Amino acid sequence: MLSDLKESISEKGAQGSSCLYSRFFFGFVSGVAIAFIVSFFTLIVMMGKGSFISEKQAEGTGLKDAALPAQQQEVQISPEKIAEKAGIDAKAFSACFGAKKFADKINQQSKDATDAGANGTPFSILVYGKQRIPVSGALPEENVQAMIDAMLSGKDVPGVSSEDKKAAASMKIVPLSESDWVRGDRKAKLTIIEYSDLQCPFCQRFHVTLENILKKNNGKVNWVYRHFPLVSIHQFAEPLAQGAECAGNIGGNDAFWKYIDGSFKG
To answer: How far is it, in rounded angstroms, from Cα 149 to Cα 198?
Structure first.
């Protein structure tokens, strides 16, 4: 009898343990399922709003265009509107832009950029006499100014080794010509040749840097703009470049630079 009682108690204990385990397992699974459902519907709501990054948050980060639908980007980036703000005759601009007459020039300048060692934008070359210093990317203004100061004073350029100087001396650079668009005095001592993309956010940032550099150096530096549209990632870069050339062709050097400024500043 005693053994029967022990067996009965053992069976009940086992049943109780099994029941507790079942309750725990069921509660755990239910909790996970509820969390998954809540997360899923939260994600759906966020996607329904169109973006994980608001337009205001994206401003100034280089992400603004990426955070907007393609249709809105197309409205934002309009060569015709940029030309209109720059004061270019609309009819003449439309005829020039539709003909795509500067495609060869833009393609050649892109090739010149890669021949000089560019693999992205902005890519610039500081030229002072026979000295050439490549500048890759949107360097801070103080860094660029330090390079210019060193070059003009005949000192070692900060961050540039003797090996870098030798490599730069053999760079394939197309010299300044009458067909170039130049901001500043063409006879300035130092020339900045920039290869740029009008849809590139880093180029936009560097554009302001070079504007400030020209103001600070009071006629000692000029700035040459050449095209390097990254068409594989920026669908509006090439049309914007075409528009810039049309603006210059119609209205001259000042009109070209107004169009460039308008492309970056809106």
So the answer is: 28
242, 106 contact by CB (below 8 A): yes
CA pair distance 222, 180, nearest whole angstrom: 12
CA distances from 92 to 241, 243, 249, 255 (A): 16, 11, 10, 13
Reported as a single tens digit per residue, the pLDDT across 27-46 is 544 554 455 544 444 433 33
Burial of 226 (0-12, 13-18, 19+ CB in 10 A): buried
Distance CA 162, CA 183 (A): 31
- Angle in degrees, CA 144, 145, 147, rounded to 5: 65
- The one-character DSSP state at 83 is H
- Please tell me the CATH code under which domain 70-265 is placed: 3.40.30.10
Tokens, residue 145: 């100014």
Q: How far apart are CA 128 and CA 117, in angstroms?
A: 18
Q: Is the peptide bond before 122 cis (omega within 30 degrees of 0)?
A: yes
- 3-state secondary structure (DSSP) of residue 245: helix
Q: Which two tokens stand for residue 31?
A: 């909790």
- Alpha-carbon distance of 86 to 262, in angstroms, equals 7
Per-residue pLDDT, 31: 52
Nearest Cα to Cα of residue 80 among 200, 198, 239, 204:
239
Query: pLDDT (tens digit, 9 = 90+) per residue, 216-256?
Result: 999 999 999 999 999 999 999 999 999 999 999 999 999 99
Query: pLDDT tens across 95-122, in order?
Result: 999 999 999 999 999 999 999 999 999 9
Strand partners, 191: 127, 222
CA–CA separation, 31 and 250 (whole Å): 69
